[in-house]
Amino acid sequence: MCIYFAMATDPPPSSASAKTGFLKTCFNGVNALSGIGLLSIPYALSQGGWLSLAVFLTIAVICYYTGLLLQRCIDASPLVSTYPDIGALAFGRRGRLAVALFMYLELFLVAVDFLILEGDNLEKLFPAASGVQVGALHVGGRQAFALAAALVVLPTTWFSSLSVLAYVAAAGALASVVLVAAVLWVAVFDGVGFHERGRLVHWAGMPSAMSLYSFCFSGHAVFPMIYTGMKDRKKFPMMLFICFTLSTLSYALMGIIGYLMYGDALQSQVTLNLPSGKVSSKVAIYTTLVNPLTKYALVVAPIAEAVEDELGLRVAAAKGRPLLLRVAVRTALVAATATVALAVPFFGDVVSLTGALLSCSATMLLPCLCYLSVRAKMIVRPSEKMYRLETAVCTAIIVVGATIVGLGTYSSVKQIVRKL
């Protein structure tokens, strides 16, 4: 039996004091949504053109709505507390397995993206680094930097409390603000300017753009954990609205700034376009390095908790038993993501594939499918008019999501295979 697919239906006992307040929950929510997508959003805009901003806003609204659908599914049963639990409530054991597969694979690849990002930007800061020699094995500069990042982020994964992670998340939110400000400084004061006009629309690049936009709002895998960890769950819709609003504004601002700066010459990460030697460029890159380090632990937490639940480690921890095995599980998880990051170091393509195949499935397809199934089992159902409206909206979202999954996955896999 694969331990990644088994989740306990009853969370370990916790006191009310262990729950997270509204402000800290907002920090965790923004941290889950506003991440490395800030770096790829200008590239996404260059792939789809200015009209793709309409697609971007549509995806933001869809993902906010499907986040609320997850809340409704959790509220439908006291036994539901995780995303795989939602799948089980909707479709039984097969539903649990399907949701777990998409959820954990998405989170795993996002963690891989973080390490690739660290290697790329550290190599830009220190281009003369030749790597390290480990016995008979030579590890190149980019790969060595990715390994170093994995070692730095490792201790943050040992925390399991969302309240503790909120302090790390606050640093991540601040880092996102500094990153946007630093890139804007490069444009206004360091001579780059806003001279590019870009294209109105680029149909050939639209699949990649849609995939990257979907990746930007891929926080659904951790939303159930954030929701069940709140002191006041009634405030979840407001928290979600605040997080999506702030994230959408920051993404849109960064995308427009970057596209006006570099146009179609944009690389997969806007920091790779910034002029070397400028203080503002270094600030942007250093901030980029901090950002994934503040988000990595939150992203891998659901995977680690799934393994720990299967092994009975979280129940043991609640009884005051040693935590060494939990540390070992999380260390092994970090090692696995580092291994994949070294094997497939194509940031833009990996992010696009994650967004198309996994993020889009977890944020659009699965919430709608699960909610429609769960709703049919509810004793108290919406009014007939609301029932039909919800069905129509969910059906439309499923069609949009399936289109992005098909076109985006094909485009991403094609690019990765060509580069391998």
From TrEMBL:
<feature type="domain" description="Amino acid transporter transmembrane">
    <location>
        <begin position="19"/>
        <end position="410"/>
    </location>
</feature>
<feature type="transmembrane region" description="Helical">
    <location>
        <begin position="353"/>
        <end position="374"/>
    </location>
</feature>
<feature type="transmembrane region" description="Helical">
    <location>
        <begin position="21"/>
        <end position="44"/>
    </location>
</feature>
<feature type="transmembrane region" description="Helical">
    <location>
        <begin position="164"/>
        <end position="188"/>
    </location>
</feature>
<feature type="transmembrane region" description="Helical">
    <location>
        <begin position="208"/>
        <end position="227"/>
    </location>
</feature>
<feature type="transmembrane region" description="Helical">
    <location>
        <begin position="323"/>
        <end position="347"/>
    </location>
</feature>
<keyword id="KW-0812">Transmembrane</keyword>
<feature type="transmembrane region" description="Helical">
    <location>
        <begin position="239"/>
        <end position="263"/>
    </location>
</feature>
<protein>
    <recommendedName>
        <fullName>Amino acid transporter transmembrane domain-containing protein</fullName>
    </recommendedName>
</protein>
<keyword id="KW-0472">Membrane</keyword>
<keyword id="KW-0029">Amino-acid transport</keyword>
<feature type="transmembrane region" description="Helical">
    <location>
        <begin position="50"/>
        <end position="70"/>
    </location>
</feature>
<dbReference type="Pfam" id="PF01490">
    <property type="entry name" value="Aa_trans"/>
</dbReference>
<keyword id="KW-0813">Transport</keyword>
<keyword id="KW-1133">Transmembrane helix</keyword>
<dbReference type="InterPro" id="IPR013057">
    <property type="entry name" value="AA_transpt_TM"/>
</dbReference>
<dbReference type="GO" id="GO:0015179">
    <property type="term" value="F:L-amino acid transmembrane transporter activity"/>
</dbReference>
<dbReference type="GO" id="GO:0005774">
    <property type="term" value="C:vacuolar membrane"/>
</dbReference>
<feature type="transmembrane region" description="Helical">
    <location>
        <begin position="97"/>
        <end position="117"/>
    </location>
</feature>
<feature type="transmembrane region" description="Helical">
    <location>
        <begin position="386"/>
        <end position="410"/>
    </location>
</feature>
